[in-house]
């Protein structure tokens, strides 16, 4: 390569015939065209490109910012939903507990009512039994008295039809049967 550079410098006529080395007017026109393009690109296109890039950057950053805001809003909504869900669960648990308490209270009230009804029925049954016993005892006393007087009349041989006497004899006989001393003696 050094020989080629030496030949170029030594021979000026060869310089114009070499296709690798441009002519001076081509260099001037090329530099002028480059300056015009550089000026046009630098003054007109670069600001537009920078403006477009800035708009894209703003759009991307704005999109990211909007996405972050949307994500924050979604998280806030999820937090509210979770809180509402937890509150609903607490309410449901409270309602279940209240229902259990009410059921226990109703059960206790029904048990008390059933026991009161059972006591009332037992008392009524005892009263009815006592009334029936008294009625049976009175009827039995009358029947025993009548049979006793008939038997006594047959044994004595005279009629004991006098009601007052008959009643006194029967009462005295029954009182003797009912007294505890008469039963202890036997």
Automatic annotation (TrEMBL):
GO terms for molecular function: proton-transporting ATP synthase activity, rotational mechanism; proton-transporting ATPase activity, rotational mechanism. This is ATP synthase subunit b. F-type ATPases have 2 components, F(1) - the catalytic core - and F(0) - the membrane proton channel. F(1) has five subunits: alpha(3), beta(3), gamma(1), delta(1), epsilon(1). F(0) has three main subunits: a(1), b(2) and c(10-14). The alpha and beta chains form an alternating ring which encloses part of the gamma chain. F(1) is attached to F(0) by a central stalk formed by the gamma and epsilon chains, while a peripheral stalk is formed by the delta and b chains. It is found in: Cell membrane. PANTHER family: ATP SYNTHASE SUBUNIT B, ATP SYNTHASE SUBUNIT B', CHLOROPLASTIC. The chain crosses the membrane at residues 27-46. F(1)F(0) ATP synthase produces ATP from ADP in the presence of a proton or sodium gradient. F-type ATPases consist of two structural domains, F(1) containing the extramembraneous catalytic core and F(0) containing the membrane proton channel, linked together by a central stalk and a peripheral stalk. During catalysis, ATP synthesis in the catalytic domain of F(1) is coupled via a rotary mechanism of the central stalk subunits to proton translocation. Component of the F(0) channel, it forms part of the peripheral stalk, linking F(1) to F(0).
